[in-house]
Amino acid sequence: MAFNDCFSLNYPGNPQPGDLIEMFRPGYQHWALYLGDGYVINIAPLEDGFRASFISAKSVFSRKALVKMQLLKDVAGNDTYRINNKYDETYPPLPIEEVMQRSEFVIRQEVKYNTLMNNCEHFVTWLRYGEGVSEQANRAISTIGFVTAAAGAFSFWGLFPKKQRAKHYLLKRYWN
User: Fold this and answer.
1) Which of 34, 42, 116, 149 could form an S-S bond across to 19 if both were Cys, CB 3.0 to 4.6 Å?
2) For position 135, what pLDDT does the model report?
């Protein structure tokens, strides 16, 4: 296997216990942690006690998730996936024994779920590093913040009549 193959979406590599698995779903990535023998641990949002489809709008509003141990091939389905231990340089991985122990403890447990603050990536990074991290959620939060700020600015700017806007612009341009 060439070095670049480990970053290919077509070549999932040979996962080792504790590896993070990134699956590419339409519009987002789903994350799982490899346990060994073809199995992964991941979370599936629940809605009223039933598993919500990850592509359903309900999963965005789900507040609970079920921790599941499943075959990687069943979780990935037809989606491409790869090993992606991208946080290893920032957060040293916990010893594999501890990762496996944490995993065993939470299987079949109901856990809190929030798309932005406690999602599948947060869950598996917590298992591997002891710290829940989600670059995907951070990007979404940043985007929401930017859109909110832009909407606020446009709304505020719209409060001024056209002449006043020009005057405000000139004052700001020459006095700042």
Assistant:
1) 34
2) 82
CA distance 42 to 31: 7
CB 20 within 8 A of CB 83: yes
User: What type of residue is 10?
Assistant: N
Residues with catalytic roles? 30, 120
Tokens of 54: 């990850």
Three-state DSSP state, 151: helix
Question: 33 forms bridges with which residues in the sheet?
Answer: 20, 41
Pick from 75, 23, 25, 32: which is nearest to 55 by CA? 25
% residues pLDDT > 90 (the chain): 53
Quickly state the pLDDT bin for 70 (edges 50, 70, 90): very high
Q: pLDDT for 88-139, tens place per residue?
A: 999 999 999 999 999 999 999 999 988 767 899 999 999 999 999 998 744 5
DSSP class per residue in 40-84: EEEEEEEETTEEPPTTSHHHHH--EEEEEEEEHHHHHTTSEEEE-
List the one residue out of 25, 12, 15 whose CA is nearest residue 119.
Answer: 25
